[in-house]
Amino acid sequence: MKIIPHRYPFLLVDSADVYEGAIVGHKNVSGGESLLVGAKCASFFEYLQVEAAAQTACADALALPETQGKLGFFMSIDKAEFFRQVAAGERLDMQAEFSLRGRFGTGQAVARVGAEVVFEATMKFALVD
What we know:
single chain, mainly beta, six-stranded antiparallel beta sheet, two-stranded antiparallel sheet, 8 strands, 13% helix, 48% strand, globular
């Protein structure tokens, strides 16, 4: 919350751990979340998984000294592959890496529940003042 402007219910990352060259965001999926209430199944939908991974990569990009005071804008999903749904009660761990070229960046994310890969995605974003 110190780095990205998202707030509940649109903040989809509960916590993050930063490692050299990568960040791992964590989302504890609950059936009582406002974004899932009324859904036929208590599943963390694929579009929410990609948004959570994008928020994880954005938090890592905006933590750099040269990007202080900027905002990250999601531009596109270039490639995404989903292997299974993420159900309530599971923890989604999203490892994200990014590269910057000026104010534009590309991010790669792999998300797991335990050791099982549930999706992989490549995304583009822009950093603006």
